[in-house]
Amino acid sequence: MTPEERETIRDTARYLRNVRPIDPEELTEYVESRPHSAAVRQVLRESAPEIGLLEREDGTFVPVPEEPLSPEFDGVGRLPERYERRLDDLVRERFGPDWEDGESGDALRGAIRDLKERYYRERDVSYDETAALGYALYHLHDYYAAVQYVLDELGSRGLLPSQLRVLDVGAGTGGPALGLADYTEGALVEYHAVEPSVAADVLTEFLTETGPNVHPRIHRDRAETFEPDGEYDLLLFCNVLSELDDPVGVIERVLPHLADDGTCVLLAPADRNTAIGLREVERALVDDGPLDVFAPTLRLWPGERPTDEGWSFEVREDLEPSVLQERLDGGKRGESDPGERTAATGEFVNRDVQYAFSLLRSDGKRRIDAEPSRSRFAPLAEMDRHVTDRIDCLSVKLSRSLSEGRPLYRIGDGSQREDCFAVLTNETSLNRGLREAGYGELLVFESVLVLWNGDEEAYNLVVDDEAVVDRAG
Questions:
Q1: What is the pLDDT of residue 342?
Q2: In sequence order, what are the residues at sequence separation of 6 or more whose Cβ sits closer than 8 angstroms to the Cβ of residue 74?
Q3: How many structural domains is the chain composed of?
Q4: Are residues 208 and 138 in the same domain?
Q5: Nearest to 136 by CA among 175, 86, 182, 95
Q6: Which terminus of the chain has a lower count of CB atoms within 10 Å, N or C?
C-alpha cells in the first residue's frame, strides 16, 4: 500500500469518525487498489492515537469518548489466566516443560533470592534472562494488582481521560503495564515504556496480550538519558526509584512533559528502605518543587512540611495463589540448591499486595480538600506544646493497625516533625471511625490525649472513651 493510499484511509476515517462506526471493509472502497480489509484495519490501528479511535469487539472503530474514564473496579483477586499462560510459555521456551525442577528451578529460585537480597541490602540490581523470568514469576502478580489500586485513586474520581498517554520509566517485566492496560479497558492508551535491560524482552511478549486499544512502544534507553517527547497524562515510576542513582533528578528531567492535569505516580514495595525512600523522593519534589501531593500523605497546613520517618504503606487483600509460583516453590531441588531449604516451603508463593505510593500533581487537586483553622485544630507540628493535653486535630490515616494488641495507626497532616500514632484504647460508637477508616482517609479527632513515647521517640494520640473520631469523607 502506497503512502498516498494510507493517507486516503486516514482522511476518510477522520471524516467518518463523527458520522458512523468505521468499518475497514467499507474503507476499502475509498482506495483505488482495493486493499484487503485486514490491511485497512492495520492502518486504522496504527493511526488510532493520532485520529482518536477505539476499536470495538465487532471490528469497527469509533471516536474516543470525550468523558473521563469510568472504570468498574472492585479490587483484584488474581492475575488473569492469559498472562499466567504467557509467562508459562516464556519459561518453557527458555528451560523446557519441567522448568521448576532440577538446575533450571534452582537457577530461577536462586535469582529470586538474589534479587530480594539486593533490594533489601540496597545494592545495585541487574538482570539477565533468568533473573528477568524469576522476577516475573515472583512479582508480576502483586505489581499487576498494586498499580490498579493506585490508579483507582484517580479513575474513581474522574481524573483519567479516555485517551491516555503514559510514560512508564523502569517498566521491568510488565506487571504495572498489564495492570494499567486492564484497569483502563475501554480507553485508548498510548503506552511508552523505558526499560534498557533484558526485562524488556519479557515485557514485549506480555504486551501482545493487552488488546488493540493499547498502543505500546518500548524505548531501550536508560532512564537517565531518555529524551521524552510530547505530553503525558501519567508518569509512572513503579518499583524503580531504589534502582536509580538520582531518582529525583530523573523525575525532574521528564516533569516538563507532564500534562497540566496529569499525575506523577510513584510506587514502591512496602519494605522499610524502599517505602521510606519513596517518601524522601516525594518530599524532595514537593517541598520546593512544582508538585503537590494528591494522595495519600496530604499536606493540610500551608507552609508546613513533614520531617518524620515516613514509613507508610497500604495493605490490600491477598491474591489467589499463583499456579506457577506453587510449581516453582514445590519443584525438585537440584545439586545447585544451597540445601537449607526443602521443597514446598511457601518461600516462592507471593500473595501479598502491600505497597507504598504517592500521587503528585501540579494543578493543586487533592484527594480530599481540607483547610483547617488553627483556632479549631492543632497541627501535629505543635505536639510538643500539648503533651498531656487533650486536643482537636485533623489527620490522615496512614497505616493499618501496627500492633497485635491495642490498635495503633500511623497518622499525619503534613506538618509532623516526629512520628505520630493514634492508639485506640477504648472503642466506642463515637470513636470507631479510627478503626473503620481506610488508608488515606481524613479523620477529625476531638479531645484526644497527647502523650510522648520516649522509647519510640514518637507522639501517641490516645483515643479513649472521652475521644471522638469522625471520618471526614
A1: 59
A2: none
A3: 3
A4: yes
A5: 175
A6: C
In which element (H, E) is residue 114 found?
A: helix 102-120
At 183-223, the pLDDT tens digits run 999 999 999 999 999 999 999 999 999 999 999 999 999 99
| Whole-Å CA distances, 354 to 255, 268, 310, 323, 409 | 27, 9, 16, 20, 16
Tens digits of per-residue pLDDT, 425-457? 999 999 999 999 999 999 999 999 999 999 999
Last residue of a domain, one of 307, 333, 361: 361
Q: What does the angle CA 24 – CA 27 – CA 28 come to, to the nearest 5 degrees?
A: 95
Tell me if 151 is assigned to some domain.
Answer: yes
Q: Which domain holds residue 49?
A: 3-63
Tell me, yes or no, whether 293 and 433 share the same domain. no
Residue 254, classed as helix, strand or coil, is: helix
The pLDDT confidence band at residue 1, using thresholds 50, 70 and 90, is confident
Nearest residue to 156 (alpha-carbon basis) of 75, 273, 221, 60: 75
Q: Is residue 75, in this structure, part of any structural domain at all?
A: no
**Rounded-to-integer distance, Cα 92 and Cα 83, Å:** 14
Closest CA to 244 of 220, 271, 216, 274: 274
Residue whose C-alpha cell is 514537593: 286
Q: Are residues 56 and 87 in the same domain?
A: no
Which amino acid makes up residue 396?
Answer: V
Residue 219 to residue 196: CA distance in whole angstroms: 7
Q: Is residue 194 assigned to a domain?
A: yes
What would the 3-class secondary structure string for 371-387 be? CCCCCCCCCHHHHHHCC
- 94 and 21 fall within a common domain: no
Same domain, 354 and 384: no
Residues 438, 472 contacting (CB under 8 angstroms): no
Q: Do residues 102 and 154 both lie within one domain?
A: yes
DSSP string, 75-103: ---S--HHHHHHHHHHHHHHH-TTTTSHH
Which CATH number covers residue 37? 1.10.10
**Helix and strand counts by DSSP (H, E) for the chain:** 12, 16
Alpha helices in 157-259 (DSSP H): 175-183, 199-207, 247-254
Q: What is the DSSP string of 215-237?
A: EEEEE-S-TTT----S-EEEEEE
CB neighbour class for 296 (10 Å; exposed up to 12, middle 13-18, buried from 19): buried
Full-model pTM: 0.95
Average pLDDT over residues 246-260: 97
